[in-house]
Design goal:
alpha+beta
Length: 178
């Protein structure tokens, strides 16, 4: 029985990732299944780990979390086993994703991390993504780790304003060719 539940959780995870056009965090994936009452957080984490190990989902590590997306092998597995996932479960997942899609997308559309450069400074690498593709990437080099941490922390909140400013400023053509 436990094996059947693990297969079900794996199918649910693959199905969930197939229904979005962006990578999701482990917290988001686990939240769907716990909120819908299908399983607990630990089972969801175990399932995600198994799917990564099997090459069915791709894991991208960032400093504050991991992001997951479906691999081609995962999509093929889901296509082969999709009928084993009941229509009620698919409907529950679809409704949950529809209700929370915007907040999920916003949560994963901005990423920031920092690292130490070869010169000893710190670089804060920030990005705004759409459909997992970068719309804007910005790297700021600063002298201290504290400054780099602050930049990455502020990026989520300030990135829409920064993107808008840069877009307006850089696309403000006067019609003259140079």
């Amino acid at each position: 029985m436990a094996d059947q539940l693990q297969v079900l959780y794996k199918l649910m995870t693959l199905y969930t990732l197939s229904r979005v056009d962006f990578a999701m965090t482990n917290k988001q994936i686990a939240g769907i299944f716990t909120d819908l009452g299908y399983t607990n957080y630990f089972n969801a984490q175990y399932t995600i780990s198994d799917l990564v190990d099997a090459g069915l989902i791709h894991e991208e590590a960032c400093p504050d979390c991991f992001y997951y997306s479906l691999t081609d092998a995962g999509r093929a597995s889901l296509d082969a086993l999709k009928n084993d996932l009941g229509p009620d479960i698919r409907s529950d997942i679809d409704a949950y994703l529809k209700k929370n899609r915007l907040s999920f997308r916003e949560a994963v559309s901005t990423r920031a991390q920092y690292y130490r450069t070869t010169s000893g400074d710190y670089a804060a690498a920030c990005a705004v993504l759409e459909h997992s593709e970068p719309l804007m990437e910005l790297t700021l080099t600063v002298p201290t780790e504290q400054q780099a941490k602050m930049i990455t922390k502020q990026w989520k909140e300030k990135s829409p304003e920064i993107y808008s400013y840069l877009f307006r400023t850089l696309s403000d053509f006067t019609g003259e060719e140079s």
